Structures are given as structure tokens and as C-alpha cells.
Amino acid sequence: MASAQEASRPFAAFSDVSIPEDIPVEGDISVPVAPSTRDDGLSTLDEPVKETVLRDLRAVGNKFVHVLYPKRSSVLLRDWDLWGPLLLCVTLALLLQGGAADSNDQGGPQFAEVFVIVWFGSIVITLNSKLLGGTLSFFQSLCVLGYCIMPLTVAMAVCRVVLFTTVETVGFAVRLLVVTASFGWSTFASTAFLADSQPANRKALVVYPVFLFYFVIGWMILTFSP
Amino acid sequence: MASNRDPFQFQEFEEAENLLDSHRDAVTISIEEEDLKSKSQRTAVGFSPDLTDEDPLGSDDKAELLGGQKKTAPFWTFEYYQTFFDVETHHVKERIIGSMLPWPGKNFIQVYLRKNPDLYGPFWICTTLVFATAICGNISNFLWYHGSPNYKYTPEFGKVTIAATAIFSYAWLVPLGLWGFLLWRNNKILNLVSYTFMEIVCVYGYSLSIYIPAVVLWILPYEWLRWCSIVVALCLSGSVLVMTFWPALRDDNPRVIMAVVSAIVLLNGLLAVGCKTYFFSKPDVEAHVSSSLKTEAVQSTLST
């Protein structure tokens, strides 16, 4: 007992230590609120489904507008998505159905053939541009090539309408004009996006396969006969 | 060797043959890995007059220096395949023109490829030829039958797959066979020149490039025009191929040489004639009519 008291003695000196009352202690001990992005991430969970769907649709529509007026912008490249190419490919393949020679195999391309040509062709062209040293990523290239099919899909719709008029040579001339114009537009639009990512001495090597790709699709559209 | 330039200035050392040009008796050692045996044999045997004009494309700094160091990436990486696409636009243009215009003494592999075979040219030339054949065949059929009453236009899209199979197997299997054959003969007879598989594929791919304008010409429905263009195209591309493989076959048994040369030309011609016959032939309109009459007759006999 006494030793305990003795032991506590050395600490007795500290009992005199006191914080003078005239030195203010200041500070803020509240935890800072988390930044507002956290709140946004949480809030998209709560938004209505319509809002979510519309956001994606607006992004796709925005890219369509950029294909219509191709100028050097990075919208297609920065936020790539493959919804637009899928939509366009399905539309094109559906519009190419209903050809007269569907039953025999010397007819037009089947649904699966159009799909394979569009997607496999895009993949081959993307691989080609990457092997030649391009700086675009794989999916960015697929996105650009897919979105630039839009003029050709519009031409296909116009051709089907024209074919209802059944005036042979005039109809054919109109279709030829429309398909040629849209083929040129597609090629021009996609090279506006793709050619910048290549070194200058290889631009033509990258553009030619794109030209061939849209030429073959244009040929499929032009030779569609109901 | 006999250079008046400042010794400290960077010099481009060209291939052994050019150095030999000025000093016929000198022995040069080339330190490129692949053709070590062949080059030393060449200097020993003597200077062959074929390999005179070595540098028509101007000096390409990278080509000779990195000649022995290419393609070191393992084959499962992306970089390995990038080495086969290491060409520029003007290279491809020159290679295409060189494959259409055979010049005596200009070996395509040595003059244009220069240890840098590419896969861009062969692949896209073959693809273009496939679509050109199918499309032009379709156009020529349409023009031929236009106006005849029984004809219903069809795009005949299934023919694209057939064309693709034929042309791509020619472009890959024939070089494989030729490469294997040269390898086998190399064991038996000491050959001067050996080609890698990629170089042979490259030559074959580029040699098909003359058929693209020929196929477009075949749209016009004149038989004499078609056969003339086949003969001309066959002569040009066949001679490019023969001149390319001549140094590899020169020292062989004359009968083997004859067999291989005729096989090269024959396969080339077979592809051309086969394409023409399958895609551009004109089955008679009477055949259509007779087959439809036959089916009607069969149906009427069945119904009675």
C-alpha cells in the first residue's frame, strides 16, 4: 500500500500540470462529407428505368448525328458503344431479306451472311489497322466502322421504296445514284475518323480496305431484287 | 571499300554483290544470318550477272541494318504479326507494279521484298480478286442475259464463298508445296538461294494482282478478248514467278527444273481458266428453257 503510494508519487508531479484556460483550443472535428460524385453514383440506381434507357439512346442518337455531319470530333471515339452498329446491322440484314430468290441458293445474301460480312469485315479491317500501327483501340474502330454504315442503311430503305414503283431503268438509275452517294459518304465519314490515327505514310493502306468493305455492302444493296 | 568519303561518316554497306561488282576477286563475308552459306558460295562460284541492279528503291536505312534482327518476337504475341505489316504505301505500290512487269534479271524477292515480306499485299489482293471475280461474273451474266424473257436476275451471292476458297487455297497451299519441295531439294543438292515461306507466299500473292484488271476486262462478252487477256496475264505473272524461282532451281537436274517450272505456270493458268469458266461462262438460255420444259413435262406426267 505504501509502496503503491510511493510508486504513484513520481507521477504526483504531473498532477500540477494543467492547461491554462486562456489558450483557446480550436479545430473542427467533423468528418468532411464525401464528394458529390459518390452521391451521383448512388442516384442513378434510383432513377427511373426510362431515364437510363433514354440516356443510352441519346448517346447513340448523338453519334448518328455526328456521322451525318462528319467533322473531326472525338465523340465517336471517346465514348464508343456497339449498340448503334448492332441496330444498323440488324436493320440492314432485315431489309435485305425478302429477295425473290430466297428459296434457291443462288440468291441474295441470307440474314446470317449479311451479319457475318459486316461484323467479320469490321474485325478484319480493325485488325489490319492495328497491325499497321494504328493508335485506335479495337472497339473504337469497330464503333466507327459500324456507325458509318448508317448512310448505306438509309440508301437500302430508299431503294426498297423505289423498287415499289417498278419503273425499270429510271428506278435503277435512281438506285445507282443513291447507293453511290451513300457509299461515298460512308467511306468519307469513316476515313475522317480513322485516318488520323495512322502514320502519314500508311494512310492509303488503311483506307483501301474500308473502301472495299463499303463497296461490297453497296453492291449487296444495289443488287437486291425483290 | 574504295570510298573517298570521310571515314567517320556513316556509310551504308550494301550487299555483297555490289561490293563484288567493283572488286571481282575479293572475297566478302556477309554477316546476315540466313544466307550465310549461300552468299559465301556465291562469291566462290563467281559473280552472276543477274543481280546487278540491287537498289532501285533508294537507300532504305532500316532494311539492311535490321536485316538479321527481324521477327524475334515469339509467334503468339501481336508484335510478331506486326513485323509482317511493316510496309508503307509506296512499298506496296512498287511491289504491285513489279509483279506486273517482269524485267529480265530482276528477281522479285530480291529486288522488291528485300528481306521484308509482308502479308498486307497478298491478303488484300486475294480478297479484292475474290470480290472482283464474283461481282464481275455477276455483271457479265446480267449483261449477257439482259432482255431475254426467261432470265430472272439473281445476285448469286453464294459464288463469293467458292471464289474465296479457290483463290485463298491457291495463294496458300501452292506456296506451301513449293516451299516444301525446295526444302527437300535443298537437302539433296546444294542450292545457292533459299527462300523463306513468307517470301514465297508474298510473291504468289502479288503475282495475282494482274488478274484484277483482267477480271474487269472479262465483263465484256467477247470470247477472243477473254482468251487474249488470259494469255497476256498468264505470261506476265508466270514469268515473274519463273524468274523468281529460277535462281533456286538453276543447279538442279534439268528434268526437275522443267517439271517445277511447268507446274508453276500450269497451276497459275489453271486458276485463271477455272475462274473464267466457272464465273463467266454462259450456260445457254435454251438450257434454262429446256429444264423448265422438262419439269413441266414431269409434272404433267405425274398428274395424269
Automatic annotation (TrEMBL), chain A:
Keywords: Membrane, Transmembrane, Transmembrane helix. Its main location: Golgi. One of its GO terms (biological process) is endoplasmic reticulum to Golgi vesicle-mediated transport. Pfam families: Yip1. GO terms for cellular component: Golgi membrane; trans-Golgi network. The chain crosses the membrane at residues 80-99, 111-132, 144-166, 172-194, 206-225. It is a multi-pass membrane protein. The keyword Transmembrane applies. The keyword Transmembrane applies. Residues 70-220 form the Yip1 domain. It is found in: Golgi apparatus membrane; Membrane. InterPro entries: Yip1/4-like (IPR045231), Yip1_dom (IPR006977). Coiled coil: none annotated. Belongs to the YIP1 family. This is Protein YIPF. It comes from Austrofundulus limnaeus. The gene is yipf6.
Automatic annotation (TrEMBL), chain B:
The chain crosses the membrane at residues 119-140, 160-184, 196-218, 224-249, 256-279. InterPro entries: Yip1_dom, Yip5/YIPF1/YIPF2. It is found in: Golgi apparatus membrane; Golgi apparatus, cis-Golgi network membrane. Residues 36-63 are annotated as: Disordered. One of its GO terms (molecular function) is small GTPase binding. Belongs to the YIP1 family. It is a multi-pass membrane protein. Keywords: Membrane, Transmembrane, Transmembrane helix. Pfam families: Yip1 (PF04893). One of its GO terms (biological process) is vesicle-mediated transport. Its main location: Golgi. The gene is yipf1. This is Protein YIPF. GO terms for cellular component: Golgi membrane. The keyword Acetylation does not apply. Residues 100-272 form the Yip1 domain. The keyword Transmembrane helix applies.
